[in-house]
Amino acid sequence: MTTLTDRPRVALLVIDVQNGVVAGSFRRDEVVANINDLVARARAQGAPVVWVQHSDDDELIVESEAWEYVPELVREEKEPLVHKRYGDSFEDTELESLLAERGVGRLVIAGAQTDACIRSTLHGAITRGYDAVLVADAHTTEDLSSYGAPTPELVIAHTNLYWKYQTAPGRSGGTVETAEVTFETPAGA
After folding, report:
1. Is 117 labeled as catalytic in the residue annotation?
2. Rounded to the nearest 5°, which phi and psi values hold at 96?
3. Cβ distance 90 to 124 under 8 Å?
4. C-alpha angle 117/10/14, rounded to 5°?
5. Candidates 10, 39, 108, 117; catalytic one
6. Which residue in 33, 85, 98, 130 has its CB near the most CB atoms, within 10 A?
7. Does residue 93 sit in helix, strand or coil?
8. CA pseudo-torsion sign 39, 43, 45, 47
9. Where residue 186 falls among pLDDT bands split at 50, 70, 90?
10. 124-151 pLDDT, tens per residue?
11. Over 60: is that where the pLDDT of 24 sits?
């Protein structure tokens, strides 16, 4: 359970599923479809959906096509959009205050890139007191093996493996498949 005892709600955090981020990503269409399913279920269960959008001065320039979210995913006007410039979605953003306002202490995380913003946000969440669950089949990354990195499927598998067992005092990580995700407030919360 989260150490944020006055915040029992669960929220979906959709990170950086932008044209310029996922264009060449591993299993792009499958991952986007899974995220769409998660968004629909979160909305149906009354859970907050929070969108995160990265920008920089080189490739993800604000208002550019690369910066825009993929067209298959549509944010509702009432759903918050967090703009960030660092890997950790909490770093120098309003994410923490948005989650606090909504009573959220447990995050379900999906998006891109596995080995950058997803990992950074997972670690950022758990160190800030959140439970942070990674949706194992709803995150992706590009192929950076030509630079010495493992292939995307290995990056994703390794992240799923180590996050499955992630814990900290009073907090838990873990992984779950899209089909198994629920946005209900945990019992006893």
Report:
1. yes
2. -60, -45
3. yes
4. 30
5. 117
6. 130
7. coil
8. positive
9. low
10. 999 999 999 999 999 999 999 999 999 9
11. yes
